[in-house]
Amino acid sequence: MTLLLVMMDSNSLYNILLNKAVQLLAQRNHTSLEIKRKLSQFYHKKYANSPDEIIDLPSKIQAVVDYCINQKWLNELAYIEQYVLMRSRKGYGKNRIVLELKQRGIEEIIAWKLINQQDIDWIDIGIAQVSKKYRAMDKHSLQQKNKIFQYLSYKGFAQEEIRLIYDTL
């Protein structure tokens, strides 16, 4: 009942934050951590002159995030799947993607579990990246081998994957 009363007041802090969250989620999927950060930044940029509401801010932001999750507007599993596909298409390996997801507030165990469930050929992605970067390649050059290993490591591929990719070239 109180939720309805709060939502009826169009100028309430909760309503302002909810509108911003809906706007953000309409543009693309986000994690709950990203939404929390963006709502906090939004509030401090626009409404920094009302210090009495700052005390309620974390609880209001959490209430907005919980509401978005309950409405199924905020779905972290769908976000992870979409993010893994997007980054793998750009040529990044599992390690890099998991690190980026961790920075976005996703637990490492969940990220690894969902990455391993994806039907992605990581070796083909690595081969495509090496072929794109090193068109003319001397496979007998130790210096070039080291460069390829370093490049694929930077892109987030594991050592075993890098060896398989290099042997396939």
Notable characteristics:
elongated; about 170 residues; disordered N terminus; RecX_HTH_3rd; mainly alpha; Arc Repressor Mutant, subunit A; 3 domains; cytoplasm
List the helices and strands and how they pair.
Elements: H1 2-8, H2 13-27, H3 32-46, H4 57-70, H5 76-89, H6 94-103, H7 108-117, H8 122-133, H9 142-154, H10 159-168
Helix pairs in contact: 2-3, 2-4, 3-4, 6-7, 8-10, 9-10
Q: What do these coordinates show?
A:
The chain has helices spanning 2-8, 13-27, 32-46, 57-70, 76-89, 94-103, 108-117, 122-133, 142-154, 159-168. The N and C termini lie far apart (65 Å). With 169 residues, the protein is mostly helical. It is 71% helix and 0% strand. The radius of gyration is 22 Å and the shape is elongated. Helix 6 (94-103) crosses helix 7, helix 8 (122-133) packs across helix 10 (159-168) and helix 9 (142-154) packs across helix 10. The chain has 10 helices and no strands. It folds into 3 domains: 2-70, no CATH class; 76-117, no CATH class; 122-168, Arc Repressor Mutant, subunit A (Orthogonal Bundle). One of its GO terms (cellular component) is cytoplasm. Pfam families: RecX_HTH2, RecX_HTH3. Residues 127-163 form the RecX third three-helical domain. Residues 75-108 form the RecX second three-helical domain. Modulates RecA activity.
